Structure formats: C-alpha cells, structure tokens
Amino acid sequence: MGGAATVVCLQQLKGMLGLQHFTTATDLVSVVKSVFSQVHQWRWESAVLGCCFLFFLLLTRFFVSAPSYTHDWPFSRSAVNYNAGCKTAMSNVVMAIAVMITLLFLTPLFHYTPLVVLSAIIISAMLGLIDYEAAIHLWHVDKVDFCVCLGAYLGVVFVSVEIGLVIAVSISILRVLLFVARPRTTALGNIPNSMAYRRVDQYPAAQTVPGVLILRIDAPIYFANASYLRERSLTSQSGLFGGDQLVLANPGSEVMKKLSSSKILDAIGHEWIFLTVADAVAACNFMLHTCKPSDTTSCENVV
C-alpha cells in the first residue's frame, strides 16, 4: 500500500505546480521527467499555496490520535477513517451517511475549490497510509522480510504495481528455496542433571556426549538438500557403514514408511530406532562401553 500511496502522491504534483499537461504513467521516472520538462509552466503561487495547505493538514493530523486497524475500503475513505481515529465497524455507517450527504448536497460547494487544495488534501491522506514504522520494525525483526517490503515498494514506485508484486513474490520464493536447500543443522548437548538435549550454541551449559554426535536437521530431507546435509554432517565419514552407526530418535510416521519401503530401515536396524533422544544416547553409550576393538562398529564413531 505504501508504494501505491506514493504513486498517488506523485500524480498530485500536477495540481500542486499548476501544470496543464501531465504524464499518464505512474512510475517515478516518468513523473519526474514530466515535471522538469515543463519548468516554464510552473505556477509558484500554486506551489506555495499547496505547500502551506499541506503543512497545515499535516500539523493538524499530528495532534490526532489515530490507532492502527485493518482497512477494507478504497484509499481515500480509509485514510479519513484512519486519521479520524475510528475504532469500530460502526464508523462505516457514519462514513456512508457522510458520503451520501456530500454527494447530494455539498458537491456544488467544491466546484470552485482550487485544484491545488484538492491535491494537498489527497497528498495528506495518502501520507497517512505509508506505514514507515512497520518497515523499521521489519528491519529490526527480519532483514529478509524488510527486503521483500522494500523491493515491493521500489518496484511499485519506479515501475508498476505488477512489477512490485513480482519482486516481492520472487524474493519470498527465493527465501523459501534457500531455506529448504540449505537447512540449518545444529548439534545438541545434554543439559546437566536433566534428560533434555538442547542446541550447544544456544545453551552454553549443554554438554556434548563423547563419541556421539547428536544432530538435528530443521527441514525435510530430499534431493535438493541431500548433498548439502551429507557434506555438513558427514564430511569426514565415508558413508553409512564406514565404521559408524546411524541412530534415529522419534522419527515421524511418514519417515518410517519411507525408510521401510526403501529398505533403509533394514540397513540401519530396527533396534536403532528410539522414542527419545535420551534413550538413543543411552544405547549409544552402552555400545561404546561394551564393544570390543574387533567389533564391526568402531567405539569412537556413533552418529
């Protein structure tokens, strides 16, 4: 909405400067080119009057408390409701009555209203729809979401609404693909005096288990991220059976179906599927302390 409001504000430069001819394009470059190509037609009286009236409107709006709400109407009426501080749906009835009275009885009074004043009123209304505080909030919360917001805004202002929408959707899809193709993998450690296992980078008190790598993958595993996960978690290993033992803790029902149908469950061993991480670690520790050097599974590599 901020981009569309900015475009509407740019279109009001025709009335503010008193221009007779103006571009029909909505992008910033076309508007600026149209404005500065007709410098000789600028009416400084209109510009000064419009700026003064706009300053008056912004100053009066500054003293009005206007809580935020989700709008359902066109821009002009939304801006009036927004700046008037409406809080309930009853404002729709009042707004409808006011619009009806204006159209039936008050329209002739606006016939001689200078175009520059109408432009100032529209600009004042549109500026209230540009939520810059939300953009600042996005910058502090999530930089990628801020890039989506900024890309959509710049696309609308400099090109068109369609291009702004395409930019926002493209960045969002790219983020999803990047997250799926490069999922976060975290090592877990045991919280002392408990059976809980948490991220070692988030909980400094978490202790890793010697000889056991507890790995959590925060995304589904499929062809797009399989190679990446293999490089991340098994960089120094040759594979599943190279002296290591793979143990699964609390896999989902769909995962178990996939493992069973692909015969991978038989390769891992049904006895290496556990309900909790604590049970899996206990079994690994038991194997590490009871295995012999001649055993097939190494005592130093249990994953």
From TrEMBL:
- Gene Ontology biological process terms, A to Z: transmembrane transport
Q: What is its subcellular localisation?
A: Membrane
Which membrane topology term applies here? Multi-pass membrane protein
Q: Which UniProt keywords apply?
A: Membrane, Transmembrane, Transmembrane helix
* Gene Ontology cellular-component annotations: membrane
Q: What is its main location?
A: membrane
Q: Which residues form the STAS domain?
A: 202-269
What parts of the sequence cross the membrane?
47-69, 89-106, 113-130, 150-174
Q: What is this protein called?
A: STAS domain-containing protein
Q: What phylogenetic lineage does the species belong to?
A: Eukaryota, Viridiplantae, Streptophyta, Embryophyta, Tracheophyta
